[in-house]
Amino acid sequence: GENVEQHPSTLSVQEGDSAVIKCTYSDSASNYFPWYKQELGKRPQLIIDIRSNVGEKKDQRIAVTLNKTAKHFSLHITETQPEDSAVYFCAASKGYSTLTFGKGTMLLVSP
Amino acid sequence: GAGVSQSPSNKVTEKGKDVELRCDPISGHTALYWYRQSLGQGLEFLIYFQGNSAPDKSGLPSDRFSAERTGGSVSTLTIQRTQQEDSAVYLCASSLSQGAGGELFFGEGSRLTVL
Lengths: 111, 115
Known about the structure:
- The structure holds two protein chains of two kinds.
- Chain A is mainly beta.
- Chain A contains no helices and eleven strands.
- In chain A, the strands form two sheets. In chain A, strands 2, 4, 5, 9, 10 and 11 form a six-stranded mixed beta sheet that branches.
- In chain A, a hairpin with a 7-residue loop joins strand 9 and strand 10.
- Chain A is globular, with a radius of gyration of 13 Å.
- Chain B is mainly β.
- In chain B, strands 2, 4, 5, 8, 9 and 10 form a six-stranded mixed beta sheet that branches.
């Protein structure tokens, strides 16, 4: 089955800096790659997703890039703010399969 | 309700006891998922229900775990003879779409502590 690796496990940045979280996947047939954000004590929520027919997608301060050849995708957050502090999960799936999640990255943005 | 509802929010039990966790999905969502979240282990898939199809049970860690979905709506996850390693947050999610591309809407989770 699919295997998703996520790095780093923790990431500390200063407010205003950029943050990058990287994920790799094993199944070349995977075609859907969402990112979920989980604030402390809250439920995970979808923040952005990308499909395999697109190389990059942007939504305000967040962007996701996909490299199908290398089987990796990344989340980029620019101009980080304290409210960006959370655990971020990448995931991958194909067809009618369920999502396989990475182990998460704890992002801490210091004022 | 407006979102996915789970109960209980917290459950403390003794080793060897059975527990039941309940999930009320968003009305009209045909897909329902159970995930387990342990510290540092991410979101571990347990089981998936889609309409009237046979559930995908491939993620259940042992035969002590089972789940039902009655009438295509409410789901119950049952853990028999609980062990300390079962301690985790159990998250339920529902989705309008089947398969890839369907946003998962998560509940707040049920935190299980096995003493």
